[in-house]
Specification:
binds 1,4-dihydronicotinamide adenine dinucleotide, 2 domains, Isopropylmalate Dehydrogenase, 335 residues, binds magnesium ion, 10-stranded mixed sheet
């Protein structure tokens, strides 16, 4: 079966890693009709807007997109395209599985957790104001509906993927109303899933526990900003941003993208690790029902990384994007 999928190459290393992923998917025998769309600086250059309507409409039409990272200027400039896209398509659940991969050095061997990040509210709505030249304020929005929705997703994910524990992170000791509401919603929803363990943890302690004993965690459900930060922390537990995939899921559309950004420090040098986006594409193939291709690509990735000969710089090797991509393609022939 052929699938229509929107492809957003994105900025920085985006075009390099998306190209690599397209090649591996093709080699796996999956038939995808890629519909090219632009976003980020690439969108700005071609359509004078970082998030062209045509891109949103294309994803609404196909329901599925694979997206490279989009650069967001720091301090000034346009609003994050990633945030814009998540809001425009109501992609309320950001799902980020984090696990040890064979061959990748890490102080841990038993990491197998999922960060379930709320994707539509919190400080991420970017509602800021300058009260005076020396005083700025930002609004943090937490609603019961969005909190219940993400926690329910977390429990459903735990049930469907065999995790026995859901941990809700928060700072309700300080943010008694906003994070307090998130926690209240989490406790309510937890009652619907008596077969799955539930705990809550104050976010700073959660970070400490994650660094000391990540193997104890299953699904970690978090408001947007904590989810963003904890995702990168968790990526660091298993070898870094080059190997951690992600998906933004709503009721009508899903956009698959790695946790990492556009990595301007290595862009255009052929050094980027395409694995994180490739594993995001594996999540996409599962979503599309292409379970066999998804499993084969996973096996190919694990066998190449496990051999430890062809690794990109972020994993301590010297391989180029091209070399690791070819290695994945060769490995596909043997799995
Ligand atoms: P980043 O994730 O782009 O890079 C952080 C570090 O990890 C850098 O040293 C980079 O070289 C390395 N790295 C990241 N991905 C890698 C890969 N695939 N292979 C090898 N090394 C990799 O984060 P940074 O530098 O904070 O952000 C850069 C830009 O990306 C910003 O404009 C930011 O807004 C944007 N961004 C976009 C995201 C998205 O589109 N979903 C997510 C995160 C950041
Ligand atoms: Mg992030």
């Amino acid at each position: 079966m052929e699938h229509d999928v929107v492809l957003i190459p994105g900025d920085g290393i985006g075009p390099e890693v998306t190209r690599a992923v397209q090649m591996v998917i093709q080699a796996a025998g999956c038939r995808i009709n890629w519909r090219l769309a632009q976003a980020g600086v690439a969108g700005l250059e071609r359509f004078s807007t970082p998030l062209p309507d045509a891109t949103v409409e294309a994803i609404q039409a196909t329901g599925v997109a694979l997206k490279g990272p989009a650069t967001t200027p720091v301090g000034t400039g346009f609003r994050s395209v990633n945030v814009g896209l998540r809001l425009a398509l109501n992609l309320y659940a950001n799902v980020r599985p984090v696990r040890n991969m064979p061959g990748i050095k890490s102080p841990w061997t038993d990491v197998d957790l999922v960060v379930m990040r709320e994707n539509t509210e919190d400080l991420y709505i970017g509602l800021e104001r300058r009260v005076s030249p020396d005083h700025c304020e930002a609004t943090k929005v937490i609603t019961r509906g969005a909190s219940e929705r993400i926690v329910r997703r977390a429990f459903e994910y735990a049930r469907n993927h065999g995790y026995s524990l859901v941990t809700a992170g928060h700072k309700a000791n300080i943010l008694k109303l906003s994070d307090g509401l998130f926690l209240e919603a989490a406790r309510e929803v937890a009652r619907e899933f008596p077969e799955i363990g539930f705990e809550d943890m104050i976010i700073d302690n959660l970070c400490m526990q994650l660094v000391r004993n990540p193997g104890r965690f299953g699904v970690i459900v978090l408001p947007n900003l904590y989810g963003d930060i904890v995702s990168d922390l968790c990526a660091g537990l298993v070898g870094g941003l080059g190997v951690v995939p992600g998906a933004n899921i709503g009721d009508r559309a899903a956009v698959f993208e790695a946790v990492h950004g556009s990595a301007p420090d290595i862009a255009g040098q052929g050094k980027a690790n395409p694995t994180a986006l490739l594993l995001s594409a594996v999540m996409m193939l599962e979503f599309l029902g292409e379970k066999e291709a998804a499993a084969r690509i996973t096996q190919a990735v694990e066998s190449v990384l496990g051999e430890g000969k062809i690794l990109t710089g972020d994993l301590g090797g010297t391989a180029t994007t091209e070399e690791i991509t070819q290695a994945y393609i060769s490995a596909l022939a043997t799995v």
